[in-house]
Every structure is written in structure tokens, then in C-alpha cells.
Design brief:
Blueprint (H helix, E strand, L loop, with lengths): L32 H6 L4 E5 L3 H11 L4 E5 L2 H11 L4 E5 L13 H11 L4 E6 L4 H10 L3 E4 L4 H12 L4 E2 L14 H11 L4 H7 L4 H15 L4 H10 L5
């Protein structure tokens, strides 16, 4: 992986004494034109403790970016403090452990990035397409939010938006005020599940068949992007869909 160079090209456009071209510089005698062009690509730092995720991001962004990697939030922050800002950084929203020192959450890392590199685009890479996760990331200072379940196209859109200092939220994330995403009947069923009632009890109270309640429950999970009923209740409470 080519070394990252801070974005301060030689004003004379002559390259540097170390023989490595800065963005926008002419190639040195020992450097080909293709290498000089490569250095002009935006620099993207990927902070994630999963090597396969970092590899996947590298593949999704293709040849349009110079990709750099960090296996922890702390290391990513230290890297930026040491060598300067990248054009865009993709931050895993979980808490990563580097084996030493504190564990920084994704939100905390984003806030720190905004302080040390205020002009850098930040993409929050969340576990799931949930509104409360996207909201927390954007409030922390991220320009974009995309879930790990998203495809390469959505990831590229998020990175491009952050690079242009524009906002982007994974299309799978329910919209703000997503009360309308659930029907009245679905909210009634979910409210009873939140109150600790079984599906059978909810069916009796609402004068529905057990199969109808099961069908509604499946649709609720799909609409909220929930893993199970407990997760759906948690999302609904955060989004004020139920009481």
C-alpha cells in the first residue's frame, strides 16, 4: 500500500526530494506518469477491526481511491494526528479494542475526527439500517451513514457524498418520523408485545387469528429492519412508535 502523504503539494509542482509525487505534482525522473496519476486519487482511510470488511471496502471503491487501513479507532486517530487529514474516512460504528488503553465508540471517534480534521468527509459504517444509529452518527458529525448490509453502490454513494461534504443516509434506513412505516394494527400488536404479552394473547385481545398476528409480526420486523421481536420493540421505543 503506498504511503499516505499530507495534502500539501509542492507549490512549484516539482515533486519532492524523496522521489514520491504529491497530488498534482509532475512525476519525478524515477516515477512513471501512471504512478503520478494514482497519487491524485482521493485518499480514504478505513477504520475497522475486521480485515475482510476492510478488504470488501477496498474492492467496492475500486481504483478511484487510495485506500489506507486502520484496525482500531485509536490507531486511526493517531494516524491522522501524525500525518494529516485524509479526504474521507470510513468509521465502523462499533467499539473496537486495540488491546491497550480505552475502547472508543464510533460516535466518540467521529467527534474526535471532527476536532482534529474538521474538513474531512466522514462515513459512518453501521451494523444495521436503523434510524437511531444513523441519527446518532450524523449528530456526532458524520456526513454519511451506510449499513454493513448495503451493497457496493450504496457504499460508493456514501463515500462520494462525504467527499463532497454532502449528506447521505442508507436508503434502507427508515425515514425520520417513521410512525407511518407501521400500520395502526401493527403498532397495536407491537405495543402488546412490548407490554410482555404473547402473540396468542395479542390475537385474543385484538380479535385476530394467531396466523394473522404472526404475519403482522413478520412484516413489522421487515419494516423496522429488526432481527427479532425484542429488537423490534427496542427500535419502536427509540423511534416513539409505541409507548
Amino acid at each position: 500500500m503506498p504511503p499516505f502523504l499530507p495534502h500539501d503539494p509542492d507549490p512549484a509542482g516539482l515533486g519532492s526530494a524523496d522521489g514520491v509525487s504529491r497530488p498534482g505534482a509532475e512525476p519525478t525522473p524515477n516515477q512513471s506518469r501512471s504512478e503520478a496519476v494514482l497519487s491524485e486519487h482521493p485518499h480514504c482511510l478505513v477504520i475497522d477491526d475486521h480485515p475482510l470488511v476492510r478488504l470488501g471496502v477496498r474492492g467496492a471503491l475500486g481504483d478511484g481511491f487510495e485506500i489506507h487501513e486502520s484496525a482500531s479507532h485509536e490507531e486511526g486517530l493517531e494516524l491522522i494526528r501524525d500525518i494529516g487529514s485524509f479526504d474521507v474516512t470510513i468509521v465502523d460504528m462499533g467499539a473496537l479494542a486495540n488491546g491497550v488503553g480505552p475502547r472508543l465508540s464510533g460516535d466518540e471517534t467521529i467527534r474526535a475526527l471532527c476536532e482534529i480534521a474538521p474538513g474531512m468527509g466522514i462515513v459512518a459504517h453501521g451494523e444495521r439500517p436503523e434510524r437511531h444509529l444513523a441519527t446518532a452518527a450524523m449528530q456526532a458529525g458524520a456526513s454519511a451513514y451506510v449499513a454493513r448490509t448495503a451493497g457496493p453502490g450504496e457504499l460508493r454513494q456514501a463515500v462520494d457524498a462525504a467527499l463532497a461534504q454532502k449528506s447521505f443516509v442508507d436508503p434502507a434506513v427508515p425515514p425520520k418520523g417513521s410512525r407511518g412505516k407501521l400500520t395502526r394494527r401493527q403498532r397495536e400488536i407491537l405495543q402488546r408485545l412490548a407490554d410482555g404479552e404473547s402473540s396468542a394473547a395479542a390475537a385474543r385481545e385484538l380479535d385476530l387469528s394467531g396466523e394473522t398476528v404472526k404475519t403482522h409480526t413478520k412484516n413489522i420486523l421487515a419494516r423496522l429492519g429488526a432481527r427479532n421481536r425484542t429488537h423490534a420493540v427496542a427500535i419502536a421505543l427509540r423511534e416513539s412508535l409505541i409507548d
